[in-house]
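During the reporting period the student researcher (J.K.) took over the structure-prediction task from the postdoctoral fellow and processed the backlog of single-chain submissions. One of the processed entries is reproduced below for the supervisory committee.
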Amino acid sequence: IFSATVSGLIFSGIIAALAGFLASRIVPFFVEYIAGGLFLIFGVIILFLKEPPKMKELFLEAISLENSIIMTLPKILKKGGFMNQKKNYELIDIIRQEKSHSNIFKILINEKKLFYDDINLEPETRQIIDDLAFPKGILKLSFIEAIDILIEKEKAGINAYQFIYDHMKKDHHDEPSFQNMLLTLIDEEKAHMEYFYELKRDYRKITNE
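J.K. obtained the following structure tokens:
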């Protein structure tokens, strides 16, 4: 019995020593990668929590763009001499639509629409947001230069709304009312662009510029 007991203790000691040796070799190997992985995961989580969803940024930038057009367009038309009755009616219609667009984006923000959708990870989202930014000092430019900027920003709006629409079609989002609303926004922005192109043509006829 004594011999068996001694043998058992020796054998268990050898196993414990071997296990300790292996642990000292293997565990640090995995711990290094596990620690690195956890650091990366928590870093991404913290970064995501600190930064607002890109779709929120896009909607906020769209609101700012629509409001900037509402504020500057009458002054630009006055500079070009287009504040007659006919043009005023067209101006009123554009301002009404731009206000409607702004209100739509406010509602989307309140609903947190697409805030947690993978559209926020699309690489082109950042550039689309940046393109919506309305430049300062537009009223210091010539009439043609100011109109060209308005056309450029209408194009940026169209690209943004088309981008969202295409993503929803591609990812099989079943939200026909939201998708139809995006198509309406695109059509209205295209009509605004045509109006601005018409203004440029009329201005050049008047001024021979």
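The committee noted the following: The radius of gyration is 31 Å.
J.K. will present the remaining backlog at the next meeting.
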